[in-house]
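User: Predict WD repeat-containing protein 89's structure from this.
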Amino acid sequence: DVIAGFLYAILILVVFHPVVDLIDNFNLTYKYAPLIIITFEMTAVEKVEEQLAGLRIARRCVPSEEPAYLLDIDTSTAAQPGSSRFVAVSCSNKSIRVYDRETLHFLREYSGHPGILSGVRFAHACDSVVFSACSEGTVKCWDVRSATRKPVQVFSGYPSNVFISFDVSCSDLIVCAGTEKVEKDTFLVFWDARGATDCASTSKEPLGVYSESHNDDITKICFHPIEPNLVVSGSTDGLVNVFDINKDNEDDALISTCNSDSSVSSLGWSGEDYKQVYCMTHDEGFCWWDMAQLDTEEPITLLHVLDVRESVCAENHGLHYLVGGLYHEKAGKLFLIGGTSTGNIHLISCSTDGLSLVGTLCGGHSATVRSFCWSLTDESLLTGGEDAQLLLWKPGAVERSLTKKASLKISSSVQKRVRVHNTSLKSRKK
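Assistant:
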């Protein structure tokens, strides 16, 4: 409220300019100039920051009978204006839950996975198709409108593959998954995703792999939002690699290698035409690079913060961890999402001058927030946490029920799996 009040402040200047009129016998009378009002218009960035700080809980999902950490969230794109949208959530109990996007009503669940799930992604062109990757070495495709609980397509890896990250290209043509290091091998595995829902119960073999660019677990993969041939990968070896998969071989495909100096936990694209790459690390560091400067003499590093917890002042709330980033297209601004172990969510603004706190969302979660999904369509935010709650936040919303769930003390599959390596990182040229 203080921020909003400040941004909407109006400076009123009342200027009393005496106007001297010479009248009979040089008698002086004073006339006063009219009231002058000067208003300060908020910039697009300021409006967005105010909107983010004003997010309030609009909906909570009904708690599941089997509580679990909500590890990843994705939403479908509406096939037609006004049509329903879906939310898919991957859980620590190896299940995928699907909800109605607006009401958060539970729709269905896909369970019985033989391994740990490493994320969920909806297809971009089909609102009912969702993908998931599993540590048992497969990526599966599900149709949430279908009555069957079986995958409509299975993308199989090689026998030793343990998938811990994946993504789908913006054209829905390519699926890519990253593996844990097994012996000396670490792979980016690629499949042709065309016709994924047309070949039920069949298994697709990989198109090929990249095996030379990382030397440890590939923890994150993210395709470019508008260029289907570009993909960025991050690893516990500290490297963030950008590839052009249209090239004939891995050496030619590797456009850039940046070193985060730590184990990569999350990454994404930002900036005009999404020419920037950012990443977060498992020790809460932040790096931000400009790929548009690769062929110039200008440095590509926009910002490097060793520990965001020490650089962002969050008053008495503190900052314990980072969850990820979101690029707001309308404002042309990158924001980070972080929080506390008690469930507070911090919204952090990024600039080349540093990081600054925009606002804190309180009263929602009661434990660590693990995942979020931002919707530019209605400026809303979905969050999931270790308290097994799925929350929908909207600007100025009023929640119908304010019941708050207690923290659920269950072991985290992420904590069991993620290994932050202390070995020295090889220096790689940018």
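The domain at 69-259 is CATH 2.130.10.10 (Methylamine Dehydrogenase; Chain H).
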